[in-house]
Specification:
Helices cover about 60% and strands about 5% of the residues. The protein is of the alpha+beta class. A four-stranded mixed β-sheet has the order 1-2-4-3, with helices on one face. Strand 3 (about 480-490) and strand 4 (about 495-500) form a beta hairpin. Helix 1 crosses helix 4. The termini are far apart.
């Protein structure tokens, strides 16, 4: 009975923290007028299209994994034209991570300190600027990573290290496979994870068990993908899925620099840029990583330390080895801040820790309240709450478009920023926006967008351009007329957003 009550209390605690912190941190939350991030809107658009029967990669072009679109499709069933449903999905993912994050802390700390450490970890993870806008693919992989970190550390800290159960191996194989269907560039962590498990078996000369463990883990990965493979086969989209999600991403979406140069450059950027913008996080992250691995203050077991550093390095390799270094990519590494929190707590005097523990109940409530106040005024996304829906071009353009009967829309030459969503329109073309490919490498999306405009396939065209330069496009202006424009702030710049209407289009 106590175990059940403790489980319910822990779940309630992690859901509460996830709800409150994401309420202020994520632009998907109900207190924001809109999540204006291009990635969030693009994924949401495709998720809704999937719910209405379109087959991603076959009927509509996108680059991330099908599970990510399914998550957003489910979110759209909760709230079709707002991000409230997506906020719910974010909360679920973050709460699951915090549940396992707290279990990691419980391997080292008592209940009271584990609760406080979990709150601090949650606060640091959503306040680093690499959290960006909220609703990234990384957020939905973090709970899978957190669970696997916990299972590996717990396993390595046990006496019988050689015999991780097949059940646990299968589960972690499923977790690893699930990441592939969200964003496969983060799969490196689980290669490192399994390498550590195999190492513990091989040093004990249990070769047969190592082979069995490998098969079971791979079986879990395969099982995670069977539903998607069956789905795409049933809708005659399996070839499209493989071609777009794997071949196109690998072939066209990577840097031409060597892997070593990519990793060196990105490591420099993380330290010199990311940590400079987030100094508290950076000091705790690097200090914790070094302190955990190089001292015995937190952990003396060398195998446990290997269980952290090897998966971490493989994750770094898989995320950044291709040379692309968008800011939000670093978000998948933020769970490792638990090392810094543990190391910092172990440096505190025993008397102080005892006092903290004695006041833990009040400190837990007070810390949550204080962190919420801080985020209300100081979070990097807080500026967006100053806008009303009527202030944003997404809603202004949508109001104009809605006066027409069954209008069609094209996001032209830039990433989706939300007009599909606010106007309640789903794409009718395979390419529905300009993707992050260089034209010289992958010209197909740009050529298709120009073809749609040239052939007058679309009623309304929305685009983004620079505010300080006049815009001219002969292909567009031959058939379309500018009807609305608005300057609006986005990611530290003012952009001009323009809405064009097909000539002679009647209401």
């Amino acid at each position: 009975m106590n175990i059940k009550n403790n489980f319910i209390k822990t779940i309630g605690f992690t859901i509460l923290v996830a709800c409150l912190f994401l309420l202020f941190a994520s632009k998907s939350s109900p207190i924001y007028p809109l999540n204006d991030w291009v990635d969030a809107n693009a994924i949401f658009t495709v998720g809704k299209s999937m719910m209405d029967g379109k087959v991603v990669y076959k009927d509509i072009f996108e680059q991330k994994g099908p599970t990510l679109y399914l998550i957003h499709g489910i979110g759209s069933l909760i709230s079709h034209n707002t991000f409230v449903g997506i906020y719910v999905m974010e909360v679920i993912a973050f709460a699951v991570f915090l549940f396992f994050g707290r279990r990691i802390f419980r391997l080292y700390l008592n209940v009271q300190l584990s609760n406080l450490a979990t709150i601090l970890m949650a606060f640091l993870m959503v306040n680093i600027t690499n959290f960006v806008h909220g609703d990234s693919a990384e957020q939905y992989c973090i709970p899978l990573l957190g669970a696997s970190i916990f299972y590996l550390i717990r396993h390595l800290k046990e006496d019988n290290k050689s015999f991780m159960s097949f059940k646990l191996l299968l589960l972690n194989g499923v977790l690893a496979g699930s990441v592939i269907w969200i964003k496969y560039s983060m799969i490196g962590f689980w290669f490192g994870w399994m390498l550590v498990v195999l190492f513990t078996l091989l040093i004990d000369k249990k070769i047969l068990r190592a082979l069995q463990a490998s098969v079971v883990f791979l079986l879990g990965m395969v099982l995670s993908g069977i539903p998607w493979l069956l789905y795409f086969y049933s809708v005659d989209g399996l070839t499209n899925f493989i071609d777009v999600y794997f071949i196109t991403n690998i072939k066209y979406y990577a840097s031409s620099n060597g892997m070593l140069m990519n990793l060196v450059t990105i490591t420099g950027k993380i330290i010199l840029v990311y940590f400079r913008h987030n100094p508290g996080f950076g000091i705790l992250f690097l200090g914790g990583l070094i302190g955990y691995l190089m001292t015995k203050k937190v952990e003396s077991n060398i195998l446990v330390k290997l269980g952290i550093v090897v998966p971490f390095l493989f994750l770094f390799l898989s995320v950044y080895g291709g040379g692309i270094r968008l800011d939000y990519y670093f978000q998948i590494f933020t769970p490792f801040i638990f090392l810094g929190i543990l190391f910092a707590l172990k440096l505190l005097p025993g008397k102080l820790l005892s006092r903290i523990q004695s006041k833990a109940h009040y400190l837990t409530i007070g810390t949550i309240a204080i962190f919420c106040v801080i985020m209300n005024f100081m979070h990097h996304n807080a500026y967006m709450r100053d806008y009303k829906k009527a202030d944003l071009f997404q809603y202004q353009f949508a109001d104009y478009i809605k006066d027409y009967t069954k209008p069609t829309l094209l996001n032209y030459m830039f990433l989706d920023m939300g007009v599909y969503n606010t106007a309640n329109i789903e794409p009718t073309t395979f390419y529905y926006m300009k993707h992050n490919f260089d034209y010289g490498v992958y010209p197909f999306d740009v050529d298709a967008l120009n073809s749609y405009v040239r052939n007058k396939d679309i009623d309304f065209v929305v685009l983004r351009t620079k505010v300080d330069k006049p815009y001219s496009n002969k292909i567009l202006e031959a058939n379309y007329t500018l009807v609305m424009e608005k300057n609006q702030y986005y990611e530290e710049e003012i952009h001009r957003f323009m809405l064009y209407k097909l000539n002679d289009l009647n209401k």
